[in-house]
Amino acid sequence: ADLIRRREDPHFQVVAAYLLDRVKPDIVVANFAWTAGLLRMLPASVCKILDTHDIQHLRSEAHTLVGGEAVRADKAVEIEAWGAADYVVAIQAAEKDLIIKTSGRNNVILAGHAARPLAAARKGEPGPIVLFVGNRYGPNTEGLRRFLAESWPEIRRRAPQAVLEVAGLVGQDFPDPPEGVRVLGVVPDLAEVYERAAVVVNPVEVGTGLSIKVIEALCAGRAVVSTIAGMRGVEGEGVLQVKFEKLAEAIVKILQDPQERKRREAASVAFAATELTPDRIYRELFNTIELRLYK
Q1: Rounded to whole angstroms, how far apart are CA atoms 256 and 96?
Q2: What's the first-to-final CA gap in the chain, in angstroms?
Q3: What is the DSSP letter of 44?
């Protein structure tokens, strides 16, 4: 069955519509395409905003490319969901352009992922720790699997003391990790993990939406090495963007060159402080809401 249709919850829609009728808001923001049915139940006087978070039919295609079980999201169903909203929110510029081109409507707002408070200065020099953070999702699993098979042995050969820490549910797919790899699982405080990491890696080869893991690493003030696909929707001098085959070389350079690491850390902090602030990231959304409220 189509992913969007399958995730629709008619009971939720009815209950939510009832509560909204009691509250009588001027604006309603619904999350994900499968909540569009709720927007259709609201009166015309309510401004309806649909936050896509991702383009679902592209996400399912990306999942299929890496050999994962295909979860089909029908393109026509998704376009129909976008049509239920007065405004559609895209998480990155390329997806904004695609939604406009696909739907034929110029009602798309860009709103990415803003920075959390930036990390304090390091308490000391980090050890030779490489960090990967990820959910249990096909492209994450397959990217990490290839990294462990092809890149990690070369990193350990050139930097024998290097350690890879894997945080997040993706670790469940690696119950027997190779030497030098620590599977942390879900951690209560990622700040502690970022504090001890010398470099953050993103080895994913396909994906959609915005690379939240890269943004969070930049906000933590860390040097990042990423594949080209892993950089989707993100820029910044703190990130060393390379082909997959060059991941090991780039990581070893940062591990063995403290000055290069510090330069990229400083670039990450500067980029997050200027480009990832809520005022900048949510400007289009804030302006749209203000215009609707005070017109």
Answers
A1: 40
A2: 42
A3: T
| Cα angle for residues 295, 276, 254 (degrees, 5° grid) | 170
Angstrom CA distances, 165 to 104, 117, 181, 258, 280, stand at 45, 23, 6, 19, 32
CB-CB contact of 120 with 192 (8 Å): no
Cβ atoms 112, 281 nearer than 8 A: yes
* Amino acid letter for position 134: G
DSSP 97-143: HHHHHHH----EEE---PPPSPPPPPSS---SEEEEE--S-HHHHHH
Q: Give pLDDT, residue 206.
A: 79
Residues in the chain: 295
Q: Which helix (H) or strand (E) holds 167?
A: strand 163-167
Nearest of 99, 138, 92 to residue 232 by alpha carbon? 92
Phi and psi angles of residue 239, each rounded to the nearest 5 degrees, phi first:
-105, 130
Tens digit of pLDDT for each residue in 51-77?
Answer: 999 888 887 665 555 444 446 788 999
Q: Which ranges of the chain would DSSP assign to H, the alpha helix? A: 3-7, 10-23, 36-40, 56-65, 75-82, 93-103, 138-146, 152-158, 190-196, 212-219, 247-256, 258-275, 278-281, 283-294
